[in-house]
Amino acid sequence: MSQPLFERLTLVGIGLIGSSIARAARRDDLAREIVISTRRPETLARAAELGLGDRYVLDPCEAVRGADCVIVSIPVGASAAMAEAIAPGLKPGAIVSDVGSVKQSVVDQMQPHLPAGVHFVPAHPLAGTEHSGPEAGFPSLFENRWCILTPVEGSDPEAVERLKAFWVGMGSKVELMDPKHHDMVLAITSHIPHLIAYNIVGTAENLGAVTKSEVIKFSASGFRDFTRIAASDPTMWRDVFLHNKDAVIEMLGRFVEDLFQLQHAIRFGEGDMLFHHFTRTREIRRAIIDAGQDTAAPDFGRGGTKPAAE
Amino acid sequence: MSQPLFERLTLVGIGLIGSSIARAARRDDLAREIVISTRRPETLARAAELGLGDRYVLDPCEAVRGADCVIVSIPVGASAAMAEAIAPGLKPGAIVSDVGSVKQSVVDQMQPHLPAGVHFVPAHPLAGTEHSGPEAGFPSLFENRWCILTPVEGSDPEAVERLKAFWVGMGSKVELMDPKHHDMVLAITSHIPHLIAYNIVGTAENLGAVTKSEVIKFSASGFRDFTRIAASDPTMWRDVFLHNKDAVIEMLGRFVEDLFQLQHAIRFGEGDMLFHHFTRTREIRRAIIDAGQDTAAPDFGRGGTKPAAE
How many residue pairs bridge chain A and chain B with CB atoms within 8 Å of each other? Predict the structure, then answer.
């Protein structure tokens, strides 16, 4: 691209996602200038040490001045306050976006504060790792991953196209979706999996008959798979659950209802029901691999497991 | 080792685990002769094609004749019938072991059928992948993984030592445990994780508001982690749940109790409780990595995810 997509890109929040955007946008020459802002001075200093941007500005309202694109990458619960804080600095015609895992709540929180003439296009890149902070980011994080845009009523189609081009430029595949539908889809594909992973890891810590050290020692038999996503950022996930409450509680109800069916089958020795269920779920794994959404390598291709220090 | 540990090793069942034992025992020269038996003639022929043993014998009773070690690697629900079938062929002094994921039930099923003078030492290697069948095995499967032996009353200490040496010879770390305690430990570290993975994958298939193709498409945001273990062998896992019923139902009760606490916190906006819980679970992940039980690489070090075919 001879001409960068944006003259000035301001990234507010520079954790795993924000810093990966900074790295990918730089690598792919998507912005002439990258301005970085974040709440804590230490984190901003760290971003500067890592050379993630061109300018580092603590005050978000100052940071967004003159930017033609602003991407807010913060816990979703802080969205309203951030929209209010940056609003006076936004230039007319600027695109404002985010990366939150919940969309309707972000719309409700941010939209009322944004001035007319600013184009609000909420976004959610389905990418991440269990690590957090500016060091955790890397430029290929979004490659071949979906980014869902949830334009709101009155979103300027041209602004949506520019933001789409930005995500495609970083290697993502882009899908448009209604914010409420997004929240339902993510409740089952992401929020409930995280919640039950967090939950079983907690349950395992509180058992009388089995010690925590036994759980850790013998975790490779299944449990360890859950601990990865249960190591995700606590602030981010607290906010996800609080801000997607209805969809999460709805999906959780279905999950528990289904779990009781399996429990019933176990209690009454209904082997055929279990066998049939476990055969169906195997097919979904195959479909996910066929769709390029996971590796086919056994055990996720984990090769790097070190021998235990004994 | 100049002298193999066993003169004749008979492997009854040649799936993922049995075939990995065959490969590792050959590689590490742990048996002079390896005899393979399995229920289906096609599978036995496949084992012969793969060159997994020295002799291939369909009738398990014939296969175990003259063996100084017999390892049964079959779904745990078939243990009683198999013990009865092989009993007449076992030579005095032979070690009989298994690899089942449940131990008390295997003891109850097999012990009554085994003749006096045969040493029964149940075992459970905590190793596997989501794949099954003789092609799925590989010789390094047990390296740096735990193998739990659950000797029963009257187990000959020398037989326990020899079986321990066999597993250590294949690269495992060995732990002795009471069968009932094993079943509790595995209920939380393995059986419940598998059950809830199977369950959420089922729940995701039955939603009205979110389509199955959306679940597959957007699975990388958490869900796909669960589909791996929900792709495990259906027969094996049916039997695990049916034969560790009490421990599974007990642990499931605790899991659901804890889940309702999280649901309550979400419903009533108790952010501090959620944050505190999610911080504790992060520490367990760290402990598991420190114990060498998982890779520290982000996202399990998944590198092989192919771009989606679009």
Answer: 395
Contact A145 B189 (CB under 8 A): no
> Could you tell me what percentage of chain B is helix, strand and coil, using 3-state DSSP and rounding each to the nearest 5?
55, 10, 35
Q: In terms of C-beta density within 10 A (0-12 exposed, 13-18 middle, 19 or more buried), how is residue B258 classed?
A: buried
- Provide the residue count of chain A: 310
User: What angle, rounded to 10 degrees, do the helices at A179-186 and A245-267 form?
Assistant: 30
Q: Is B225 close to A226, i.e. CB distance below 8 A? A: yes
pLDDT given for residue B300 in this prediction: 86
* Cβ-proximal residues to A81 (8 Å cutoff; 6+ apart), any chain: none
Q: In what order do the strands lie in the sheet with A31-37?
A: A55-56, A31-37, A6-12, A69-72, A95-98, A119-120
Nearest to A237 by CA among A46, A65, A77: A77
Tell me the pairing of strands A31-37 and A6-12: parallel
Q: Which CATH superfamily is domain A181-268 in?
A: 6-phosphogluconate dehydrogenase C-terminal like domain (1.10.3660.10)
B148 to chain A nearest CA, in Å? 10
Cβ atoms of B250 and A167 closer than 8 Å? no
Nearest CA in chain B to A191: B222
CATH architecture of B181-294: Orthogonal Bundle (1.10)
Contact A294 B305 (CB under 8 A): yes
Domain limits, CATH 3.40.50.720, in chain B: 6-177
For a pLDDT cut of 90, what percent of chain A falls above it?
80
Q: What is the pLDDT of residues B159-194, one digit of tens each?
A: 999 999 999 999 999 999 999 999 999 999 999 999
In tens, the pLDDT along A216-275 reads 999 988 899 889 989 999 999 999 999 999 999 999 999 999 999 999 999 999 999 999
Query: A72 near A12, Cβ under 8 Å?
Result: yes
Give the pLDDT confidence score for residue A140 in this predicted structure. 96
The residue that leads in pLDDT, B302 or A116, is: A116
Distance in Å, alpha carbon of A84 to nearest chain B alpha carbon: 22
Q: Residue B189 contacts by C-beta under 8 Å, 6 or more apart in sequence?
A: A204, A210, A214, A215, A218, A219, A221, A222, A223
Contacts of B116 (CB under 8 A, 6+ apart): none
Integer Cα distance of A308 and A21 in angstroms: 36
Element (H or E) spanning A198, and its range? helix A192-205
**Strand ranges inside chain A, DSSP E:** 6-12, 31-37, 55-56, 69-72, 95-98, 119-120, 123-125, 146-149, 173-176
Residues in chain A closer than 8 A to B223 (CB atoms): 188-190, 193
Per-residue pLDDT, A208: 77
Q: Is B6-177 a domain of CATH 3.40.1440.60? A: no
What's the pTM? 0.90
Q: Mind listing the pLDDT tens digit for each residue in B124-144?
A: 999 989 899 999 999 999 999
Answer for the pair A117, A141: CB distance below 8 angstroms, yes or no: no
- For position B298, what pLDDT does the model report? 87
* A296 vs B contacts (CB less than 8 Å): 304
**Rounded to a whole number, what is the distance in Å from the CA of A167 to chain B's nearest CA?**
16
Nearest to B200 among A201, A206, A255 (CB): A255
* Location of each CATH 1.10.3660.10 domain in chain B: 181-294
Contact B108, A277 (CB under 8 A): no
